[in-house]
Amino acid sequence: MLVERYGSARLEELDFGDGPYAPFPKAEDREAWGSLSSEKRANWLRLADHYADYGWPVLKVSDYRAYWTSGDLSRLSLAYFERRSVLGILVIAECMAGEGTYMDQILNGIFAICEETTWVSPGHRSHWKEFDKQASIPSSTESGVELASAETARLLLWTRYLLGSKFDAISPRINERIVRETKERMLKPYLEHDDYWWQGFTPGERVNNWNPWCNGPVLAGFLLIEEDPDVRRAGIAKVMRSLDAFIATYAADGCCDEGPSYWSASGGGLYECLEMLSLASQGRFDIFGERIIKDIGAYMPKVHIHGDYYVAFADCDAKASPGAGGVYRYGLSAGEESLVRLGASLPPSGDPSTRIWFNLYGYARDLFVEKERLAQRATAPYMRDVWFRVTEVMTAREREGTEQGLYVAAKGGNNGEAHNHNDVGSFLVFADGYPLLVDLGTEEYKAQTFSARRYELWYLQSQYHNLPTVRGVLQHDGWPYKARNAEYSQQGGRSELRMDIAGAYPEEAGIATWARTVRLDRDGVPAVTVSDVFAMKDGAPAEMFHSLVTPCEPIIGGEGSGEILLTYAPGKQAVIRYDDGHLRARIEKIEYMESRLRRNWGDRMYRIVLEERQPVAAGERTIAITLERG
């Protein structure tokens, strides 16, 4: 798409790097930086003052090796990412204050980062061919472009852009060091390599959010520091070719199968690249009218539930912070009103010191659209019905334009998706914007997460999703394990997704058919119903149970009631009704969660287990969720 329209023959016409490329004001523009709100200024200065005596923690070789010896990535990450967040905070604060208050600490941070042996995360070193998997010692001669190294380069590039003239007033060695390290560690290896898997140049290799995430800093490098016009054009052309590979493998319905918490790097990362190309060419580069570009952006309002809750499957967090300014700008560029409204409704980005990645470009761009964004006084669109026909995800809410009432989302798809969990046929239910039945998400990443033992992790397994387990057999991972005959329909007050999920289970489960229907009925007493019609092969009876995961403490009703009560907010209850004649309910506390799950859900979750009272060869089971509206 990009190369076809703006290939090498037209790059000279676009004048990349020849004109004034100023996506936001530099620090010396005191009028612009002084126009920002006093509240915003006070918040950033308060954060920066906290790091006035920051000691720039040592990155230990033993912590780097810990990933290879024990699978622990966190010991290195704490210091590695903290260094970068602190530098970013100090840079923004210096631009706000403009008095040199934070300059010494900024220089300390720049040189501490430039003197690191490697910018490459240990977990990412195995992503290029020449890597020796037995070498757990970082090498100063081993450079590669991956998420951590690219993000580091991005931070330094935009630091130089903002404060470069102030650096030169101190010593030209500061900018020279940034340029040298960024070229050697990112731009040079990028030009030399076509075999980074995320570039999309290897036949059969499927790319994901890494593609725009890494291409964004690379593109910034060619635009900001590459002085040779031939090298700059070659680099930009290669970035375009790589982004084309990303767009070509993106679902044609615009759905991010990695989920909303990855969209900021995936769809949002693509937008950042396209925005930079547009700004650097003074608007001559414009791809935002393409349907796929519009749909990639429109995904976010389509999966927004309420507040920071989004439709989350797989490794995705239940809560996402997509970046209000970026969402808003994407909506304006693509002419997507729902995206504009969502972006305008979101709160400003939270405390940057709590975030792993510090995107200096994003923070600076957001600062200068925030006043306009907030002036919209918009509310989120709260879309009523959505169907992603390629990825087979549906969402439906009781009433459009409000979070009040029932909300359901369900998925078909396959178990070979990016950041996959074995969850074909799973579903979510929310009430008045609060979670009732959910997808847990994932824990902090470690070596096992992306190893051959990935699916030994309990929270990736189908038995910890809202799914059946048959003969003790769980769903299997891989593209062949998928839903069949998925059909979506919306008529009047009913929205539903029907599919056969038998194919998501291996042969030993012995399932012939398992027709699941997830439905929202708005008429009468609104309800979400999940109906399963199943049959075993050869009519052989099987033991089975049905899992339901909830953050609400479930209370099982009296004997024979077939009811489970969930209190989802003070004074608000939902009722799950099930076939008590065939199913026996028990409750398990999930108390073995670690930090990432606890951030999303608190200290405890519950699994409702509906067990078949006796082995069964065929049958129909339905659960219904309604709200107590008294």
TrEMBL record:
Subcellular localization(s) per the UniProt record: Cell envelope
Domain named Heparinase II/III-like C-terminal: residues: 408-544
InterPro entries tied to this protein: Chondroitin_lyas, Hepar_II_III_C
Family annotation (Pfam families): Hepar_II_III_C (PF07940)
SUPFAM superfamilies: Chondroitin AC/alginate lyase
Domain of life of the native organism: Bacteria
Name under which the protein is recorded: Heparinase II/III-like C-terminal domain-containing protein
